[in-house]
Design goal:
Blueprint lengths: L12 H9 L4 H5 L2 E6 L11 H14 L3 E6 L5 H4 L8 H19 L3 E6 L4 H12 L3 E5 L6 E2 L9 E2 L1 H12 L5 H10 L7
Parallel strand pairs: 1-2, 1-3, 3-4
Antiparallel strand pairs: 5-6
Helix pairs in contact: 5-6, 7-8
Length: 195
Amino acid sequence: MSIKKEELNPRRAYERALFLGCGYSYEDLEKPKIAIVNSWNSINPGHIHLQKLAQIVKEGVKEAGGTPMEFNTIAICDGIANSGNFSKFVLPSREIIAASIECTIKAYNFDGMVMLCSCDKIIPGMLLAAARCNIPTIFLTGGIMLPKTFQDGPLKGKTFVTSDIKESIGKFNAGLITKEELFLIESETCCSPGA
């Protein structure tokens, strides 16, 4: 695609300059701008793999003739924040997610978006944003965390998922499992990305 610079709107020069500063080309800016809305972070197993997924999505957007532009939103894990007064921040984060995405999508005038997310409040927050923005949207979730089946030791043959960790705390407090078993469940149950 050949861009005739004399045909570019002078009023949009500052906007174009900023996008060019991010590494986009004039040709990129002529294509549909597709937001890659990502909840990737390195502090939540439900989201740790979304950065790799985003790279695949970006390639797909390019192949389809669009320009992918990625931004992130917050992603609080209920399980990590679920103690004491920390849990009071979880539900409000849903509205912050929705509002932050809506602000970015509308301020940048995106033509469409692909949302990558996982977990309890992040998925609804992104769905709220998708409804508010009312542009073409593809929604990809991060999937489930795989169960852990122990191959040896005191838990040989037993399978655990994340909810079993909480039950194991109660079992330990009731004297039904040992401290060693609790530690094994704690240290090995979250064995893959996902929620």
